[in-house]
Amino acid sequence: MTTSHAIGTVSQLEALFGVPGDASLKKEVPYLHPNYQALIAASPFAVLATIGPGGLDASPRGDPPGFVVVQDEKTLLMPERRGNNRIDSLRNIVADPRVALLFLIPGVGETLRVNGRAQISVEPALLERFAMEGKLPQCVIRVTVETVFFQCARAIQRSRLWAPLPADAKREVPTPGAILSALTESAFDGEAYDRELPARQRATLY
């Protein structure tokens, strides 16, 4: 990309995109309006974005709808389930509490964006509150909300994310084992990994 075609200032951006519509501004509030609370209660999936000394991280979080609990209009509670123990998001939160959440609801075009500051808690009563199948989360992320707004449905509509696939549709993508084998030049037994993965996931879901 040549320098003459690069956008490097806010004024250039504003000239390119124009003025945001009235609705785009009025939908943003510094608290969890009851309608926004309803979207969170219906969502089984969210993306958590964080920033820290090692850079940025965006990772998925999911559970039955309402897994992120609205404690009050300024506070969200999200359980941290067991995973791969990389804890990239948690490392970032310890270093820099700024977070962003993007909530998705199957079949709904609009998404919900929440920005705020997070704290990691291992308070016993809080962990018990989020027990699933008799197992506690590793910790609970408490988010103090700073701004909330819904995102229009265009991205979901363009991607056809919720559209059912045709019966004859085939989407060939590399398996986790195939990826690991390729990245390690076959030093990793990818076939064994793929064969054992479903049972391991079932056993360690919670």
List keywords for this structure.
Pyridox_Oxase_N, Pnp Oxidase, Chain A, Pyridoxamine 5'-phosphate oxidase N-terminal domain-containing protein, globular, 206 residues, Split_barrel_FMN-bd, seven-stranded antiparallel sheet, Pyridox_Oxase_FMN-dep
Descriptive notes:
The structure is a single chain. The longest helix has 14 residues, at 190-203. The chain folds into two domains: 21-159, Roll (Pnp Oxidase, Chain A); 165-206, no CATH class. It has helices at residues 10-17, 22-26, 34-42, 88-95, 124-129, 154-159, 176-183, 190-203; strands spanning 45-52, 55-62, 69-72, 75-80, 98-104, 111-121, 139-151. It has a seven-stranded antiparallel beta sheet with strand order 2-1-5-6-7-4-3, covered by helices on one side. 31% of the residues lie in helices and 28% in strands. Strand 5 (98-104) and strand 6 form a beta hairpin. The chain contains eight helices and seven strands. It is α+β, with helices and mostly antiparallel strands. It starts with 9 loop residues before the first helix and ends with a helix. The mean pLDDT is 95.
